[in-house]
Queue: 2 jobs
Job 1
Amino acid sequence: MVQWHFNELKPRDKTREAMQGEFFATEAIRNSAEALVREAIQNSLDAGLKSEDGQLVEKVRVRFHLATGANAASPAQFGQFFEGAWPHYLAYGILFRVRVTSPGTPDEPHGLLLAEADRIRLRGPEEIEETRDTILPVVPTTEIGDELWKVSFDNQRPRLLVNLKAGNYKELTLHPAFISLVYPAAIREVLWRIVYIESHRDYDDATSDYSRWVRFAVEVLAVGEPPKMENDESDYDDVSAWVDEAVSAFSRKHGLLGKFSDFISKEGIS
């Protein structure tokens, strides 16, 4: 019988929050399936048998296969591989990749790859379906001193660090005051860093988080393409205006002023 072993999640480990999808969904990001296929192939190449000088000893063959219909394995056949693991599969941050193939033939028993989906989270019957991805994952940490939050750009991957010392970070990031005050500031910092400091304006590379952020602004927030570089002074002003427009569009899209006003009203603040 297969035995599963899982490491405990530590404060510095990276996690993905489903609630982030409401604000930073990436449905507009195109070519994600193509990017995921490339990723799977690259992972296989990386794991291929290599000589001492790093050269592949033999060709790597990659086959994408998920049988359907009569060719599919029964739940009973696969059940042994999931025994005891379901509590972990349903845990926060565990995501799956699913691929669909055509029925096999005598010449090609594994069929053709028809479609695939990535970053799928299993859910219990009591949960609301959540199919969105996020470009600003929340990472709980104790390594930002007395700051409540901070944006990290390690490996060109924007992340929202939230101080565990402040309490339950999941509840904190759902609080209307946090949403209304922190997210616009985080977006401003991320877009400014990507477009002005890093001079990144491309949004066609689905494998780049910077490109996904630019596409988020262009297509989800509908603020148009970032201004092109001309000279330092005009670029600063143009990018600043573009970032301001994106933050304003985000705040308007999610009614952040109303969320904050409702909060302070309930708190009796005038």
Note: Strands lie at 96-101, 113-120, 138-141, 149-152, 159-163.
Job 2
Amino acid sequence: MTKETNPDLLTVENVLNKFTDKYCYLVDVLGNNGDELIKIGTRRALEKAGLKVSYSYDDADVIVFRGGAYINDLYPQAVTKVADILSKMPKCPVIIFPQSYIFFNGDITQLFSDRTKATYLFARERRSLKILSELAFPPSVKLGIDHDTALCLKDDPLVHSLQQKSTDGHILIVEREDVEGTSGFVHKPFPVPFVKKLFPADFRMNVKRAIRKSRWVKNTKTDYAKTALEEVRNRWSDIDGLPVISADISDQGTATFEEFCSLIANAAVVVTNRLHVGILSAMLGKRTLLREGSYHKISGVYEYSLASMPHVELIK
């Protein structure tokens, strides 16, 4: 992990080193398959720094929130959970791993207004750091910038294993289909409440995945998929004739984590506005075309962490 040119800014590594041999309470908020990559990267970073994970508030010397993009106005339930945990541990230092931030109606300074112990708040790209730096945090809050935590896995056995099994078997198009998507399409919960009472969660999830998987070919007819395919075919002639898979594989209702990894590892080309589809694709050396989502997250991470990779490009 690298340090920004401003010497006063912190990196995750130098903050974690303050807590070597200490116990941390690791907080997970929300989750999709991309977040699974962040979770694994977070645990690797903690292990490297010599922190031990506690499963109890009482035994923790520091609270660690994994990175992502959930402390913002798009996910009020997640912000409420963060506030609740902070209120339960008012005298414990806090490390919030690299995030992207966007605020439409307010900010997050009130989350930390009563805290006297150090809070280390990290952005994962410069635009989010600028947003944070313009807020009126109490003196206990220290700002930093570092790479998305999933990038800790670049030399990890998980990525090496996927590289060994990698093929160029299909074109993969992944369009985000939730509140951060750009098409306006969002998957809705199953409309019949009694289904939850009749069938266990695992069964419902498997049925949901099977239904969505049956639509992967139809999904190639969407405007997003059509423009993505046109972009790919204009650039590379060697992919003609490859099958096309178009699905929001970051959504755990569409693909398992193992399927998520396999579909990326076996792609010849990946086009996506899902950040961690792009990050895993980049780490695997795949031809990767990133498209911006609903705010600056993807372009920001691309500029800060991925722009030096010749096989990765940000497109309109």
Note: Confidence is low (pLDDT under 50) at residues 1-5.
